[in-house]
Amino acid sequence: MFSYRCFSAGPHALCRAAGLSRLTEEDRSLLSANATLSSQLAADGDAGDHSPFAKSLLKNFDGNPRLYMRDMLEDTAKDVCVASRGAQVPEITTRGGRA
Asked: Which pick of 10, 11, 63, 71 has the fewest CB atoms within 10 Å?
């Protein structure tokens, strides 16, 4: 499953796009990425532009299409930390995995 949500105080107060797939009992793994740490606000970016997280994620999707998703999200998190000079720290969480 891949889900993207953004919450903003701007003119687009809430936007969501999600791709969903059915989970089975055998599949209990989880990979979660948040644009910033829990209880922190993420930067929205400039008007008419993507947020720093979305901008980096799109760049990494395009530039590294065969990279494992976890590695791509780690690269994205590093990009966001650098771009925000440490003010925004994305949270990447992995649970479970293959047996």
From this structure: 11
Please say whether the beta carbons of 33 and 92 come within 8 A.
yes
Instruction: Look up tokens 């009992």; give the residue.
Output: 25
Instruction: Give CA–CA dist 84/28, Å, rounded.
Output: 34
Query: pLDDT tens for residues 2-28?
Result: 555 554 444 443 444 444 455 566 666
pLDDT at residue 40 in the model:
82
Tell me phi and psi for residue 93, to 5 degrees: -125, 135
Q: Which two tokens stand for residue 12?
A: 């687009």
Look at residues 68, 73, 67, 65 and name the one whose alpha carbon lies nearest to residue 93: 73
**Domains of the chain with CATH codes:** 28-95 (3.30.70.1470)
Confidence band for 80, pLDDT divided at 50, 70 and 90: very high
